[in-house]
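Hello, quick one for you while I still have it in my head. I'm working through a protein record and want to make sense of it properly. Would you mind checking whether the tokens look sensible for this chain? I owe you a coffee for this, so here goes:
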Amino acid sequence: MTRRRKFVLLVSCVIVLCSLLVIPLLPQPKPDVASAITKAIAFFEGSMEPDALLFLDVMHRRFEISAFADALQRYDQVLAEKSPDQAPIMRVFRRIADHENVFQDGDLDFVSWENDLLTIPALYCDRWGLSASYPESLVEAASRGGYLLTHALLAHIWIQENGCESPLSDQFFEFLYQANAGLINEDSVVSDLELEAAAFLQLAGQGNLVDDAFIERVLAVQKDDGGWLMSSDEPGESNWHPTVLGLLFLLHVEYPADSYPPMLAQ
């Protein structure tokens, strides 16, 4: 090999090596919110998960997502097939999608989960009013944190949308907003609880409390199938619960507005 060919070969190797070092440093395209929404909508194609369907109905009414136009019909189909011990709670929560919903005598006897015991009185407060002990229950739930804190916020949203008199002070509800925002950590892990806090803050008109960096993290951990994991740092398959929350959150991010149609069907 001549000296000239050796020189050319050396220069070529240097160029290739430099390109390998530079490529990772180039800015990578950021995930797109609209694309993430499209993928998440596709995740729920044909879904018959009843709790998800109620949220899909909310998204249809609030954002006119045509793919979810039949969410209530699908919900009723699932309801008709449920066993006698599963149908009652579904009949009770059906009011999210149908203001005139009527459930059967005895259905409330099947309500036992403490999150449901907190939110159902708010869901029907315009019919039943709120008990004298309810404000204390709301404060206790908020103080316990976690999913009880997020459901205390959901109850507050439903109380407002039903036009019921707020049982607590504005100072408490400001605490409620800030405490839910505090559930969203600054690390790279995105959890189901964080997505719930972010989505419910958007429903409450407090989306400004969610940092833009969280949006980037949500986009970064979306799975190829359009869904999200219960916790992004754990292996597993996409789950409907964080996915419906992630989609609800991103829809508010992509379509900001001063006001939206209510979450509860009117």
